From TrEMBL, chains A, B, C, D:
Keywords: Amino-acid biosynthesis, Arginine biosynthesis, ATP-binding, Cytoplasm, Ligase, Nucleotide-binding, Phosphoprotein, Urea cycle. It comes from Scleropages formosus (Asian bonytongue). PANTHER family: ARGININOSUCCINATE SYNTHASE. It is found in: Cytoplasm, Cytosol. Signal peptide: none annotated. Pathway: Nitrogen metabolism; urea cycle; (N(omega)-L-arginino)succinate from L-aspartate and L-citrulline: step 1/1; Amino-acid biosynthesis; L-arginine biosynthesis; L-arginine from L-ornithine and carbamoyl phosphate: step 2/3. This is Argininosuccinate synthase. GO terms for molecular function: argininosuccinate synthase activity; ATP binding. The lineage of its organism: Eukaryota, Metazoa, Chordata, Craniata, Vertebrata. It catalyses: L-citrulline + L-aspartate + ATP = 2-(N(omega)-L-arginino)succinate + AMP + diphosphate + H(+).
Amino acid sequence: MSKGTVVLAYSGGLDTSCILVWLKEQGYDVIAYLANIGQDEDFDAARKKAESLGAKKVFVEDLRAEFVEEFIWPSVQANAIYEDRYLLGTSIARPCIARRQVLIARQEGAQYVAHGATGKGNDQIRFELTCYALYPSILAPWRIPEFYNRFKGRKDLMDYAQNHPPSDIFCMTKNPEDSPSAPDVLEIEFSKGVPVKVTHLKEGTSKTTPLQIFTYLNEIGGRHGVGRIDIVENRFIGMKCRGIYETPGGTILYHAHLDMEIFTMDREVRRIKQGLGINFSELVYNGFWYSPECEFVRHCIAKSQENVEGKVQVSVLKGHVYILGRESPKSPYNEELVSMDVQGDYNPCDASGFIKINAVRLKEYNRLQNYSFRS
Amino acid sequence: MSKGTVVLAYSGGLDTSCILVWLKEQGYDVIAYLANIGQDEDFDAARKKAESLGAKKVFVEDLRAEFVEEFIWPSVQANAIYEDRYLLGTSIARPCIARRQVLIARQEGAQYVAHGATGKGNDQIRFELTCYALYPSILAPWRIPEFYNRFKGRKDLMDYAQNHPPSDIFCMTKNPEDSPSAPDVLEIEFSKGVPVKVTHLKEGTSKTTPLQIFTYLNEIGGRHGVGRIDIVENRFIGMKCRGIYETPGGTILYHAHLDMEIFTMDREVRRIKQGLGINFSELVYNGFWYSPECEFVRHCIAKSQENVEGKVQVSVLKGHVYILGRESPKSPYNEELVSMDVQGDYNPCDASGFIKINAVRLKEYNRLQNYSFRS
Amino acid sequence: MSKGTVVLAYSGGLDTSCILVWLKEQGYDVIAYLANIGQDEDFDAARKKAESLGAKKVFVEDLRAEFVEEFIWPSVQANAIYEDRYLLGTSIARPCIARRQVLIARQEGAQYVAHGATGKGNDQIRFELTCYALYPSILAPWRIPEFYNRFKGRKDLMDYAQNHPPSDIFCMTKNPEDSPSAPDVLEIEFSKGVPVKVTHLKEGTSKTTPLQIFTYLNEIGGRHGVGRIDIVENRFIGMKCRGIYETPGGTILYHAHLDMEIFTMDREVRRIKQGLGINFSELVYNGFWYSPECEFVRHCIAKSQENVEGKVQVSVLKGHVYILGRESPKSPYNEELVSMDVQGDYNPCDASGFIKINAVRLKEYNRLQNYSFRS
Amino acid sequence: MSKGTVVLAYSGGLDTSCILVWLKEQGYDVIAYLANIGQDEDFDAARKKAESLGAKKVFVEDLRAEFVEEFIWPSVQANAIYEDRYLLGTSIARPCIARRQVLIARQEGAQYVAHGATGKGNDQIRFELTCYALYPSILAPWRIPEFYNRFKGRKDLMDYAQNHPPSDIFCMTKNPEDSPSAPDVLEIEFSKGVPVKVTHLKEGTSKTTPLQIFTYLNEIGGRHGVGRIDIVENRFIGMKCRGIYETPGGTILYHAHLDMEIFTMDREVRRIKQGLGINFSELVYNGFWYSPECEFVRHCIAKSQENVEGKVQVSVLKGHVYILGRESPKSPYNEELVSMDVQGDYNPCDASGFIKINAVRLKEYNRLQNYSFRS
């Protein structure tokens, strides 16, 4: 008799295949679920493999559009970056994948959901917190002693699960050294802080749907070796670990959005929003996409983006993204106000008062401390 | 009869030359003061020019070593960056220059210090807040109506003071497109968060004094077109303005230090220190280097750097800085702990408890909100 | 010939009466404007005084309801408190008063608005920043040299403007020592973070409009000597100054709202909201009620209050506010979950995993530092 | 044969007595350890009880002085307060108690330490994180299934462990309604942010050692019913729970220190320190006293206290603490600067410039948004 039905997040690879077989051996009915979020994968072959291993049903779900619109776009608005470097690619994929998995489990009446993430990583947390937030029960074979003890000796499985050699790890980006020596110049148009159009200025071609825009930026960024990093990061679990990532399209968007945001947003609004963006990044990295605080932060950030509108011109070359210029109908940038030629409403004498008042505190401090200084 | 003695921060250029002449016309004795903080300048020619314009005395001061050690190094420790992009080059030069100027004024018994910074910019504030914090009186000709009204019609002076055309603006960095196609690979060694040695790995040459290290990194970064940005920034005065900067050495150090910091510092210490770094950057940008709060923040940041020690390998190519690897005697990075092969002290089952407790709050929220989600 | 029309924020007191007369002497037409925000004042007498001093028109405006609903309520939601002590009473009155003044100026075609706030205080800033944000030109006599030089010798005017002796300063609150020795017990009902009903539990009487609620809480709080403080505070202008305040109703609301907020709001949402509340308090204290950042912060805080709903019972006695209990249909407080008797969904073993994972970082730190400790 | 030696944090109560017996039954040698941190307890009776239950050794340790100096004083410097209300009494006792326990374990060669904190609370975490940070192995009976399953039916043990009825819960403070109707007026002298002397102004008596000072403030505060709160708080474990606390001495110190801090500390230093104090409070509440980040924060906060020096006069009456006045040799409070009579160095016209420059941003925003407002 069946112990119940499990929806397994299946990748087609060796590790989740082992889990599929093991779950069946333990007496579960297994529904395999493959999420297409844009990775390079033969989904038909994976489907057949799952069926041949005994999956009762196989779901291959195209989540690419919702991944871009509902997960990547809010991250672009947030200028999301973990520990000043990591653009959170995988981190935002997990809640998107798990959300659909929970939906399938509900619809199919499954008692369990399972994943193949290992017991020392972040993905187990991102996956499971999403499930707990959206749905009750979970089964995570990698942390079940019977499971990981059985596979302990299987060097091939463990090897697979380990960090792959760096040479193989990049599948989207060219080595910058081997990339073209002429730049591609793009114009990215934003509205409410998300890209609504990308134009290749020389070729005159444009992309306008979210999925097309993101795919195209990945392609251009990849061609020029943009967005590769080799870092040590702090996992939620309390360990430092090495991570090698490539985020070509995300890197272009990060720079372009940052430029448009500072161009159009009030300085003090942005200072507050910058703090919220740091909150957002940590929450998402740690797996709290579906949490009251992340929902709240996303709402606030979206509010801040209402006037982030305009066009940024960027040049992409040899791993680097250069901002060439920007324009916006909503920027408080005021060439006349800044100009030295035009005095206008601005009276330079006011600056004296401004400085003197700012110095009141400093003078008092000087009086008390009798500032000494080396020369 | 003299109205008193003014120490003028003199650049050798047209604008401060005009000020020098005007101050003399107004009846002041003028001491010209030229600070060498590493800029490309013919100091002898400038000295002669000042003398010929009637300066009573001329001081040419080599501040390069103290600029690097007392101003740039703390900024490296802070990972100082304003509005996520600007590495604060000019901002940290002002307090260094003004400090010496105040010292000369004291030593020479001068009643005034003056500068040539314009009335809409940040530099006037940085300059004057330093002086108010360290010394009493100030004279700032650009904001004196008699001065700027007189020169209003002098198109040449105004032109000079305006933003120079971008083509001329870069004097330290090559255009990345024209830079070498082979990288330079450096090893930068840190102790207490500041660089103590830079080695060119292929050539085997090293630099070990702060000034040599910084000069060398400027040279290498400049050769590869590193650190050019074209941004719009928010001035303290409340305006948005365009800025074009080049910070070759600073950009290399920013990336190398960030890498070493995350490698060696506890995650939670770094989260707090990250906030202090943002405080530091805003304070310095706004001219508050000499303030109780900036002093306090510098102290705290320096404390956080005690274990930021080790070597980072970086590759510099075509405007980009790549981190290749790092090592440290003081990193909590523990390959064994992270490894999938070695279980050690870490029990993967603990992660279940960790996740479940983190989910307590989320489940309660779910219970209350009855989370609905689109599919 | 008239130099133009000024709308003067007129208090009926000596200082603004002087200003009224002086403005007329200088050749301005003066419209006197008295705002009723709930202060104890004979508005008819003030109107007559203004007319007798030569005001062209006199506006007495009852702003009490809009002051409570549009200014006090958002401050309650924010738990607004400056430097951990000051409940911002005057600070939030200024933008309310200035907004109507600007409106009158527009409607009457006046070129100027003026106020009687002194040149070293905060109120001048709060007043003027509101005007600049909403309307162009301003005239502030206290900072005009002709004005303050003329009145320098007038000891009586200066005396009046100075801090009044503490014995006179409290007009709303009784001395706690002289207050009743039996408490009043109230139940305050909140919806979306603002009070919607106050009931005196013993008397069974209720108040339900914002103005009635606030007036009643002032009365009850005043009777029991609640909300008196004697502090030194940091003005925006950079000085420390002494302030003596009484905020009886505001103090009761501060405690009751805080209790309901923590009861109903997710812990992590509240941590973020706490930071926004600090931002809000500083902005309002410094005069930035009408600014893009304060608008943004108010929006975010209001969003956080959606579930702040329920009833708090408070006892008011001898200057202190005691929270007796609370109930809410929307609290994640779950007696069963917390109880030691009921295990329910919660497995105490999970806490072991939670603690061990939280300790991973600490153990590594111990390994590196070799923690020594005194005994 | 013994399974090893356990040092048990023993309270003398029913719950830890049960644990003692149970540990012995399981085959452990048990060392009972009672910490005296100032609680009202018959330590001799508890020692005898432990011996009679079979403890191999009993340690009764007087930690009162080190608790005050090393744990309470830093919390006073931090103005530590969790969720704006809870003064952290128990939270800071745990690391103090656990530190000595670890020391005894080392000295006695014990393999285990154990405590009686329950599996849903905060104390288990505070206790265990301290041990993990300072020492390796731990045994926590309350979370061992054999233990809590066995005692599940024992209603008396569970009852004891539950929240005690509120009527009994206050042992240090009088009901404010029953407290004296005449105040006690104290002068508290601070140096480097910690109290160094307390004087009863009427009686003329003083206390000068940390333990005496704190004990005396507890006595005075207790007599007047100061520091009782009834709150719902957010536990680290993710639950909301009710807590009833009394902190008489801590409440007096909180208010007195806050007053002296704002009086003597630069405004902007304090803004940064305020954030660090919030960090500190959350860390300590969550059990991270011994962590790199809490160590770092304590260091920074201590640095901020260098000039927090002077005397505060406070009146304590009917549950409330009133600040009467303060004096300090190190305050930047400058009566002359603030005074309306003395113009001194301060030019009121500078305020115009200050305000106008602060308004530049607001005017630009107005221009873009065309601010509309209701009347």
